[in-house]
Design goal:
single chain, alpha+beta, Rossmann fold, 2 domains, six-stranded antiparallel sheet
Length: 361
């Protein structure tokens, strides 16, 4: 776990549908908006940064279709992707420019101390500066100051448990020792649960699942040859053991989300892309409660299309995303614009009534 402080501020230019963004982040950030507004592009930015500091930038850029597909309206419109992450008092500042062969290289890479309290805003004490025109990050992992941002961003994974098909990874056997972090699609769910089975968090996870699936008694851990393990569970009132294929899609997704949010050692940021998909309204309410609880220990950034989920949060948690003049616009709500409605309506209802924005124009 990184010792770096919470991510407090993001400035971003030229990334996908985001022409320019200047956003303060809270412990809990719930993005609401119409299809195509840019919510998923914002979430994908965190994966982009994760790959960048894992020194997998070039592979990721190629997999996304090249630099031109990542630049806002392509290189004819946008000359660079610019990023400034504020962890207070530290900042990580980069600029990436496209090459003739459609890669992205560093024009600037700086990690430093923002001395805004003592000197004019933007005055920096530069700790480390990466080399110019390099294809991968040059931040030294052996410098304790820059190591903090590397450790923090290496923890950024976008979790989406949408795939519950017959061949979904969460239903297959996993390496029993792959239990440090729950993987983005839950592919090591059985191994992860096996690793925390003696903790209070595990008991909390089982109890929460039983609130949505009263028939569920417990998980059954049966290590297989060659160090493999797969998800198995026991039905109340039965001696039979069942595997993940016998769980409904919604129940399996809820198990993954519950494990992620109630785990004993949370990542530096939890990134959730439409976590409500396939869940019963009561399960969505429990999901929101777990998100609120987890945000006291870590930071959560989630996108949603669900009025039911949005109803469970306060105005301080909401980020409204709209398409304005062919670009994604992100804004936090101001208390003054919602105060008159709060006694009679919840946030999702106000969104549905088009009083907040975040709806098709």
């Amino acid at each position: 776990m990184s010792t770096l402080g919470r991510l407090q501020h993001i400035k971003l230019k030229g990334f996908r549908s985001i022409r320019e963004l200047d956003l303060e982040l809270a412990p809990l950030n719930v993005l609401i908006g119409a299809n195509g507004a840019g919510k998923s592009n914002f979430i994908s930015f965190f994966k982009f940064m994760n790959k960048l500091l894992d020194k997998d930038l070039q592979l990721y850029v190629a997999q996304q279709g090249g630099a031109n597909s990542l630049l806002y309206f392509g290189r004819k419109t946008t000359e660079a992707i610019e990023v400034d992450l504020g962890f207070n008092p530290y900042s990580y500042d980069i600029s990436l420019v496209p090459t003739k062969d459609d890669r992205l290289v560093f024009e600037r890479e700086v990690f430093g101390l923002n001395r805004g309290l003592d000197t004019p805003d933007g005055d920096w004490l530069n700790f480390v500066t990466g080399a110019v025109a390099t294809s991968e990050s040059q931040l030294p992992a052996d410098d304790p100051r820059s190591a903090g941002v590397i450790d923090c961003i290496s923890d950024w994974k976008v979790h989406h448990f949408h795939d519950t098909s017959e061949t979904a990874k969460v239903k297959l056997a996993a390496n029993i020792h792959d239990n440090t972090r729950l993987r983005p699609q839950g592919e090591n769910l059985a191994a992860f649960l096996f690793g925390i089975r003696e903790t209070k968090a595990y008991a909390d996870i089982v109890g929460m699942i039983q609130r949505v699936a009263p028939f569920f008694q417990d998980f059954v851990f049966q290590p297989e040859p060659k160090g493999q393990i797969r998800l198995r569970w026991k039905h109340k009132g039965s001696d039979e053991y069942f595997d993940a294929h016998m769980l409904s899609d919604g129940t399996l997704r809820f198990i993954c989300l519950t494990t992620l949010l109630l785990q004993p050692n949370l990542p530096t940021i939890l990134l959730l892309d439409e976590p409500e998909l396939g869940l019963h309204p009561f399960a969505i309410q429990l999901l929101a409660a777990m998100m609120c609880s987890a945000s006291a220990k870590t930071q959560i950034i989630a996108s949603t299309q669900s009025v039911t989920l949005a109803n469970e949060f306060g105005w301080q948690d909401i980020v409204v995303v709209d398409q304005v003049e062919n670009a994604s616009r992100f804004r936090r709500l101001d208390e003054a614009e919602v105060t008159q409605w709060l006694d009679d309506f919840r946030m999702g209802e106000l969104w549905e009534m088009n009083l907040l924005g975040g709806t098709p124009e």
